[in-house]
Design a protein that fits this description.
19-stranded mixed β-sheet; 40% strand
Length: 351
């Protein structure tokens, strides 16, 4: 046995023994203990490599280096790559170990609703309610690592109700079996105006769909109620895909921030004479798709944004500053300010 090998393996054995004792004593956080249990096979790889080529040396930059040291470095790199791949694969799995729900029929005194949503690695869907014209519902499904709070707040003398959804992680680095992707589904009342919708998602896809909610609460002979959206501000800062279904609903503003996800925004089918819709859409690591009624004038401008890859109908024109607008129009019912990465798709469709 060479001098280097006489030193290497005793050090490894002593180090592993010390780590084992500390782990048994509970000195490590759960995540570290979990990783150590999963990492021990790398010692077999290192032992096999050392047995095979440990006596040899390699010359790098005129310096002779024992291959067993190269093997030790390679084993550490291999371990890091395996851990990273394991977390990446596990992180994309949808989890439903942790379920939190809230459902409320709004009191007649409530005239407006405000939403404040802050989630992490979550797919968000917001739809008009199918359970009643004044029903507000939120459902979160995720892993035990997600610490979620869903609550409604309203001042005693206020006619505005606020739905607050917050998600955080119980530890900075979760255990492998505790991570995964979450889902958040929110159903909004179709006859109560939405004053403001603020959403921040660290990672996930987003779909805003102001689609026709159907004949919810409608009977033959009755007049259908179609409240109209007013203004939207969306702020996307995180990583994955979220869904909002809000057609034929009145909304004041939306602020969304989503990272590494796409935003799909389906606008209302109709607007009242004084209705308008404005918004700020910030998407990192994804694209934006806007479905716009053919008779609604849309204006999209860029703010601190890369140059997107545009797709739009013939009725629109692209200006030199990156503004996309309806041709021969001075008054726009819908105006968005967007921020996307360079080359990200910015698609406008007529519906």
């Amino acid at each position: 046995m060479t001098g280097q090998r006489r030193v290497l393996w005793p050090l490894i054995i002593v180090g592993v023994g010390c780590i084992w004792l500390l782990a048994v004593a509970g000195a490590f956080p759960d995540v570290v203990h979990d990783l150590l249990l999963r990492a021990w096979p790398v010692l077999i790889v290192l032992f096999g490599f050392d047995t095979l080529v440990g006596r040899r040396r390699v010359t790098v930059l005129r310096r002779s280096i024992p291959l067993n040291l190269v093997g030790a470095g390679g084993a550490v790199i291999l371990l890091a790559v395996v851990i990273w791949l394991a977390y990446e694969n596990q992180g994309d799995k949808l989890r439903d170990d942790n379920v939190v729900t809230l459902e409320r029929t709004l009191d007649p005194a409530i005239e407006q609703v405000r939403l404040d949503i802050d989630v992490r690695r979550t797919t968000v869907t917001i739809n008009p309610s199918t359970n009643g014209p004044r029903t507000l519902r939120a459902e979160f499904r995720g892993s035990e690592e997600s610490e979620v709070a869903i609550a409604v707040e309203a001042e005693s003398d206020s006619t505005i109700l606020t739905l607050v959804v917050t998600e955080d992680y119980t530890s900075t680095i979760p255990r492998l079996e505790d991570i995964g992707r979450s889902t958040l589904i929110i159903e909004l009342p179709i006859t109560v105006p939405i004053q403001e919708l603020v959403l921040a998602n660290a990672e996930g896809d987003v779909t805003l769909n102001f689609s026709q909610p159907g004949d919810v609460g409608w009977q033959p002979g009755q007049t259908r109620l179609y409240p109209q959206p007013a203004s939207v501000l969306v702020d996307l800062a995180g990583l994955y895909r979220q869904s909002y279904v809000l057609r034929a609903m009145q909304i004041g503003s939306v602020a969304m921030s989503v990272g590494n996800g796409d935003l799909v925004f389906r606008l209302p089918d109709r607007f009242g004479p004084e209705d308008s819709l404005t918004g700020t859409l910030q998407v990192n690591g994804g694209g934006i798709t806007l479905d716009v009624p053919a008779d609604v004038a849309l204006n999209v401008s860029l703010a601190d944004s890369g140059e997107p890859r545009y797709e739009y109908p013939d009725e629109y024109e692209l200006l030199f500053d990156g503004t996309l607008k309806r041709k021969n129009t001075d008054r726009f019912r819908v105006s968005f300010t967007v921020t996307v990465d360079g080359g990200a798709p910015l698609v406008v469709n007529h519906k």
